[in-house]
Amino acid sequence: MLFFRGLKPAACWVFLVWAFGLGQWSFAAPLITHEGRGSMVVGAIELDAQERQWIRDNPKVIVSSTQYPLYLFKDEQGHWAGLNNDLLNRISAMTGLQFVHEESFSTAETLVRLENGAVDMNTTLALTEERKTFLDFSHAFGGSGWAMVGRTGAPLLQSLDQLSEKILVLPARHALEAVIRRDYPTIELHLVKTYAEARALIESGEAYATIENEVGARLYPSGQLQVGRTVEGWWEPDHLAIRKGQPQLLSILNKALEAFPPAELRAIRTKWLDGIVPTPTPTVWQRATQWGCWGGAIISLFGLLSLLWNRRLTTLIKQRLAAEKDLSDQLAFQHALIDAMPEPMFVRDLEGRLIMCNKSYEEGLSTRFDQVRGRQLIEVDLFPAQTAELLHAEFMAQLATRKPRFSKRQLMFNTGLRDIYQWTVPFYSADGQLRGLLGGWTDIERRSGVEECQCPR
């Protein structure tokens, strides 16, 4: 009990700390989970007169689309699917624009077609200073990091410094090409058309690494390739790239992206990317904090359970003490009641052993209860041996028959022969089990003398 009482203040503090941590986790949880996987109804957006006129003049927007799994690709039926396709479908429902995909087979080809005006826009190009000269970019609607991909068995790639004097293979006109040439001149760049060619060169040992969008890098089975760290400080936001000279189209797309509820965008991204991009490796401090929260939660739970159990035990102990007090009061009353009886009374168990008697019994047989408690009549010298054996046999026979016995008789005591009125009755427990005999006697001559006595007033 003292231990639990001492635990109360500490347990309360730990519980408060854990509850605070849980509240922070609950607040952050909606930021990392989507609110639903079903599509949400998005109403039409408000467009000005020039934008509505532009849509009437250009109902179809040509999209140069390079297959980029999960973002944009053709399914088994040859239909375009993916995160960006879902986004365009939502924008189409909001604005009335019709997006028509024209397949392109490389980043370089897509850029050429945008530069010469053959297509209107693209959904997978990263923003660079060079591209901003002939392209406009919409508001960002997501993003991911750039991951380094190397050969299995080689040291895990963690920074671009590891690629010094090594061959880095990239698709032509890659978003990071100019930056790497400028900031890492010791890296030997090798340009190809597609990421598939780049991965093949790494597998064959002709190149050391490539840099790919993290989603795309982790989508393919590892095989002979392994995904390293993301390039620190470089993040690739997702934009819609629009050929310059189409300000109305850019404005319409930005208004549509602004009208998206965050939960809707989060649901679309989660639908396609959930489980692909791993959670960043937590720092030592984050791990310590996490373990601390879990430890605090467990300790708090233990403390709370201990407090509840302590209160339960306290209640049970109080109830038990109250019951014991009531029982003690009842026993004290019973003893007082029996002792107040002027005639000898006794209680014997199923073996004939004495378990209770009153003061009159002690005085009538010149003994004390402590001397005869738990003993049979034949084991003590309260009566002559023949009388003791007779009475004990009667007690045992009566316990067998379970019948009460009332009789006037002469009985030999140690002090002589007496005329008595003797009674013995079986008694039972609350559940009906036979527990022993309750009995006593009245000295008839003494009783008669008392009744004939005329006391002066």
Automatic annotation (TrEMBL):
Pfam families, per database record: PAS_4, SBP_bac_3
Keywords assigned: Kinase, Membrane, Signal, Transferase, Transmembrane, Transmembrane helix
Top-level taxon of the source organism: Bacteria
Domain PAS per the UniProt entry, residue ranges: 337-394
Keyword Cytoplasm part of the UniProt annotation: no
Transmembrane segments: 288-310
Database matches in InterPro entries: BvgS-like_periplasmic2, PAS, PAS-like_dom_sf, PAS_4, Solute-binding_3/MltF_N
Family: Belongs to the bacterial solute-binding protein 3 family.
Protein name: Transporter substrate-binding domain-containing protein
Organism per entry: Pseudomonas fungipugnans
